[in-house]
Amino acid sequence: MAGWILKNKFTIAMISSHAPSLNYFRGPLISALRDCGFKVLALAPNYDDAVREAVRDWGGIPIDCAINRTGMNPFLDLANAYRLSKQLKELAPDLVLGYFIKPVIFGTLAAWSARIPTRLAMIEGLGFVFTPGPKSFSLPRRFLRWGVMVLYRFSLARTQKTLFLNPDDMQEFISRRLVSANKTLCVGGIGVDLDAWQPSPLVTLPITFLLIARLLREKGVIEYVSAARAVKKEYPTARFILLGGVDDNPGAVTTSEVEEWVNEGIIEWHGHVPVRAWISQASVYVLPSYREGVPVSTQEAMAMGRPVITTDVPGCRETVIDGVNGFLVPPQDTEMLADRMMRFIRNPELVDLMGKESRRLAIEKFDVKKINQRLIEILLREAGRDNEKIGAL
C-alpha cells in the first residue's frame, strides 16, 4: 500500500493488444492503482473467461476492444482506432496508458481523437521492426520500419509523456526524432513480486539451463540451441530446457524446427506453461535475445536466485553485472555463449555465488511494489492530480 488514497474520482484506461498480459505483467499495477482509489478499465481484444476473471481479481474492469495484435493492414488498424475512439469517448477516462506497439500508436490516436485529457505511452521494447536480425536491412523490413516510425512520431507527439523501460530505447527514439526529449522518462523494468518469487533450492546435478521466451529468432532461440549442441558434445549430461509457445510473428521459429531439436536430444520443450516450477529446476537462466525492454522472465529468475547469461544489448544488459550475477555475451555469438555455459559446468559453485547476487540485484532494482508506486506518482503528476492524496505520509 502507498499509505494514501485519492480524495476524488480518477479513472484510468489501460490499453493492451494482448489480454493475458494484463494479468501476467500488469496485475500488480492494477491492484496498486485500485488500492490508491483509482478505477481501472483494462481494455484488450482477446479476453477469455479465465483472463477476464483474473483481471477482476486484480481489481480491474475487463473491457473488450478492437485491436489487431499482429496484422499489418493499416486500413484495419485505422478502422479499429476509430472504433476505440468512440469507445473511449463513452468510457470517458481521465487518463489513457497504452503499452505494446499498436496500443501506443493507435490507442494514443484514439484517445487524442476522443479528447481524453491525459495520454501516456509505455514503450515495452522496440520489437521486431527495430531488432537486429538476418533480414534487418531487407527492403520490406526497411519500408515497414519507416512506416512505423512515421506512426510513432505522429502519435507520441500527442502524449504528455512517453515512458521507456531502458535508456537505450529512449535514446534511440530521441535520436530518430520520434519523440521530444523533454517528453520522455526511463522507468526501468516493470518489476517482480519478491514475496511471490522467492529463492528455491539450487540444482547442480546436472547443471540445467533454461530459456523462457516466445519462439522467435530475435529472442536468441537458435543461438541457445546451437550453444546447447556444442556443450552437450563435451558434457552430454547437461540439461537444456526451452519454454514458450509458437508465435505468428514474422520472426517465429516453426513447430517442426523445435520438434527436430527435441528429437535430436538437444533440448526439452514444454510449450507455453507456468514457469515458476521450471525456474526451480534450473541452475542458470539464459536469454540470448537481440533486444528487449527489460525482460520479465529474467527478473523472475533473478528473484528466485538464479544466475543469468544474457546478451550485451539494450534491455538485457540492465539485468546482469558481468562476472557478478552472471555473464554478458555479444548477440548471435554462439561460441561465447557455449563457453559461458561451460564455465558453470566446470565451476558449479558459481551457481550459488552468482545466484545470491541475482537475488540481491532483484531486491535492489526490480521490486514491483516500489516500481508501481513510482509509476502511480508519474501518472498523477502528468494528470495534474498529485495534490489530491489523502493520508500521504
What key phrases describe this protein's structure?
43% helix, 16% strand, 393 residues, seven-stranded parallel β-sheet, 15 helices, six-stranded parallel β-sheet, alpha/beta, single chain
Summarize this, please?
This protein is of the alpha/beta class and 393 residues long. It has 15 helices and 15 strands.
Average predicted local confidence, pLDDT: 93
Low-confidence stretches: none
Number of strands: 15
Strand line-up in the sheet with most strands: 4-3-2-5-6-7-8
Strand and helix order? EEHHEHEHEHEHHEHEEHEHEHEHEEHHHE
* Global geometry: globular
How many helical elements? 15
Alpha-beta classification: alpha/beta
What Rg is obtained from the alpha carbons, in whole angstroms? 21 Å
Question: For the report, how would you describe the main beta sheet?
Answer: 7 strands, parallel
Tell me about this structure.
The mean pLDDT is 93. This protein is α/β, with parallel strands linked by helices and 393 residues long. The protein has 15 helices and 15 strands. The strands form 3 sheets. The protein has a 7-stranded parallel β-sheet with strand order 4-3-2-5-6-7-8, with helices on both faces. Helix 2 (27-35) packs across helix 15 (368-382). The longest helix is centred in the first third of the chain and has 18 residues, at 74-91. Helix 8 (167-175) links the parallel strand 7 (161-164) and strand 8 (184-186).
